[in-house]
Amino acid sequence: MSQVTVLKRNEISSTDESKYNFYKTLSEKRIDLPPVMIETLQINITKLCNQTCVHCHVDASPRRKEQMDLESVDRCLEILASNQTIKNLDLTGGAPELNPHFDYIVTEAGKLKKHVMVRHNLTVTIDGNPVSGESKRYLPRFYAENGVEVISSLPYYQQYFTDKQRGKGVFEKSIESILLLNEQGFGKEGTGLELNFVYNPVGAYLPAAQKSLEADFKRELYKKYGIEFNKLFVITNMPINRFRTQLMKLGAYDEYMTKLVNAFNPSAAQGVMCRSLISVGHNGRIYDCDFNQMLEMDVVIDSEPMTIFNFDYDKLSNRRISFGSHCFGCTAGAGSSCGGATA
Amino acid sequence: MEYYDSNDLKRFNEVGKFGEDLMKKFFDYYNAAIGEDGALTKREKALIALAVSHVKQCPYCIDSYTTQCLESGADPEQMTEALHVAASLEAGITLIHGIQMHNSLERNGAL
Question: How far is B43 from chain A (nearest CA, A)?
């Protein structure tokens, strides 16, 4: 089995790693987490975003300039075409719609019969591109025409928490955007057009159970706005980048990490998303997951960083996944992943 | 010197230093009553506990149950409403004893 080396880590101190040692926990509980099968190619296609959310592990904002270029996009499509076990294309960012090749990659992936998921922030439809001013009002229709699964962050079904986390006015714009998606058939029974929401806590606490929150969201959003949707994914805030800064400011970092460590759930660990997903950065580099990407923990195999240009499915399937103290975020309680709870 | 230190909440167990068995009985009862879904959900119990914490004005409990309410999916609107339930009970309990006053006024011939 190839050795994986960590090239560079952003904002993870060696003190954190020894104090909150994920490898030690796995060893004590005799848990091994090798890759299962790579089913999802998740591409962080841009760090440009029309929002600057408090919890964002990407540190995305309207000031970011990182974009995946066309050559890399085409290479990703080649990887999808030549690897039938990779069934899903998961586009994230920033706001992935703000990459100039976004529409192209969605339509081409659709032609390859891949299931396309977009991490859509809802407000980009209303705000448009914060740099060029280009309108994005066409997105709901575009998503419907291409059968995209829309996955959108909605911290709560009321304004207070949503705006606190994602910015003033975001809740109102989100509702407007969701209604546009509902008009196209998203979230409605029988249309096959999936609209899923993502909840994450607005502060330094663990999320409530997915099932009960989903019931609350469905009841309240329908009652107040006539909104329908499919599922609610509940995720835990990862103690990295912007959220870590917030925790440090509150003096709550150690308390939060202790909470995550104490809530370690072996069942949740078995379902961690890095076992079935490969994360690709805007620069074509490959990572175990989006969080490792933001911490610049490249996948390195045979002393060489893996990129989309030397992509090797077999080597990736047999790699050792790189873990760190932040991984307690994915294994706490019912677990956390891009698809919600894992236990 | 402050009488209350939020770090002391984590030290609750230490009260069992002189009486481990009774402390264990307390925690077993407490966890069963509050920590599990039963006829009431954990969220409902956390909201009740939050309200009681304010009536009894225990800063440890207020801190702890604020977090527990959030972690069971409650929001500040619901939590504040729970306080009003508690506050209105307190007001009501005070006022209902006014009937005792009326009874006494009657005995005194003043009513």
Answer: 9
A299 in Cβ contact with A199 (< 8 Å): no
Q: Is the ipTM of this complex over 0.90?
A: no
Closest-CA distance, A163 to chain B, in angstroms, reads 14
Cβ density class B65-79: b for 16+ within 10 Å, e for less: bbbbbbbbbbbeeeb
Cβ proximity of A86 and A79 under 8 Å = yes
- The nearest CA of chain A is from the CA of B54 a distance in Å of 21
pTM, rounded to two decimals: 0.89
User: What is the widest separation between alpha-carbon atoms in chain B?
Assistant: 58
Domain containing B49: what range?
16-107
**Domain CATH number, residue B60:** 1.20.1290.10
**Tally of domains within chain B:** 1
Q: Is residue B11 included in any domain, yes or no?
A: no
Domain ranges of chain A: 14-331
Instruction: Kindly state the tokens that stand for A168.
Output: 């003033």
Q: Say yes or no for a CB contact (<8 Å) between A213 and B75.
A: no
CATH fold for the domain made of A14-331: TIM Barrel (3.20.20)
Domain assignment present for residue B37? The answer is yes
Mutation pick from A157, A163, A205 vs chain B, by most beta carbons of B within 10 Å, is: A205
Q: Chain A partners of B75 at a C-beta cutoff of 8 Å?
A: 156, 158, 160-161
* Per-residue model confidence as pLDDT tens for chain A (343 residues): 333 333 334 455 667 788 899 999 999 999 999 999 999 999 999 999 999 988 788 889 999 999 999 999 999 999 999 999 999 999 999 999 999 999 999 999 999 999 999 999 999 999 999 999 999 999 999 999 999 999 999 989 999 999 988 889 999 999 999 999 999 999 999 999 999 999 999 888 999 999 999 999 999 999 999 999 999 999 999 888 888 888 999 899 999 999 999 999 999 899 899 999 999 999 999 999 999 999 999 999 999 999 999 999 999 999 999 999 999 999 998 777 777 777 7
Is there a contact between A305 and A313 (Cβ–Cβ < 8 Å)? no
